[in-house]
Amino acid sequence: MTQAPTSTLVDTYGRVHRDLRVSLTDRCSLRCTYCMPADFADWLPSAELLTTDELMTVLATAIDEGIDEVRLTGGEPLLRPDVVDVVERIHQLPRPPRTSITTNALRLAGLAGPLRDAGLERVNVSLDTLDRDRFKQMTHRDRFDDVLAGLAAARVAGLAPIKINAVLMPGINDDEAASMLQRALDEGWRLRFIEQMPLDAGGIWHRDKMVTAEQILEKLSAAFDLSPVPVRGSAPAEEFFVNGGPETVGIIASVTRPFCGNCDRVRLTADGQLRNCLFAREESDLRSVLRDETLSDAEVAAEIRRRLHASLAAKQPGHGINDPSFIQPQRPMSAIGG
Length: 338
Ligand code: SAM
Ligand code: SF4
What we know:
This protein has helices at residues 52-64, 83-92, 108-118, 132-139, 144-157, 177-187, 213-221, 287-290, 297-313, 333-336; strands at 9-10, 16-17, 19-25, 69-74, 98-103, 122-126, 163-167, 190-194, 226-228, 238-242, 248-252, 265-268, 273-275, 284-285.
């Protein structure tokens, strides 16, 4: 019989944390304009990235403390050469968490089957347009067909449900809201629109130049009948039945409709820094603990446990994007793990 977790990761506002977002690398094969500039190359030094053994030590401890869901992300997580091994080792941990991956899907065609066999449950694929030329314009890479091939492979492998993340930008792809939803309905994808957040490496985000949840709903409502799905729980997406359901569309409105009160997420960067929020200004250094040769394995686990709880004790009630004093975190989304 599997043992119950020894603890619960609860913060001072009573939020129980069960979901760990793990960045496997900060590197990426695309340059989505809302994420990083075309010439971005400010990567973390390889020696600073957690090894897979180190990652498993953190994960085993976090699972003991109540984490039961792991989302692998990045940067582009499928660029990590041993990503299949990472998934397999997570699956072999005592009390393996539900494991999914957020990916740009460029390498998914070759990896969907092996990832599924290794224990991956499902994928979130980022796709912002259905137009090949626009894809190239938005990502600075001509790889649209690879994404479609990756999506097809995910379906064949049984990585279900396939969720699609789309960020709309004004005057660039915001005319595609309804056509993307129609394509998602046709393909059986679960589409979620994400409001553009102030987390890009180039600092291009501006409140007046983002497409809001309200605007997205307006565009969708011109073509579909949308009605709110009543239960939300800790899920970031506000879900709407499309034409009476059962299909739904989601909107993740971090900026205009923050959902921090229900947040159950904590994040680990590829270089071993624990973050209690995407927008946190402070991190807790787990890598130095993992690499401290004066500590026994038990002492390392105890210190990681202590830092997990201390980090959550310092978690703010909200991300503060809408406060006049808001300052964008130094790390961009790609180096945090979105
Ligand atoms: N490379 C993978 C991908 O794109 O799916 C995983 C990492 S990416 C940082 C995770 C998600 O963050 C993607 O769905 C992407 O669209 C989203 N994202 C990146 N920058 C963003 C921003 N400034 N605002 C909102 N979403 C963003
Ligand atoms: Fe890469 Fe994902 Fe950022 Fe696009 S959103 S540049 S795919 S990390």
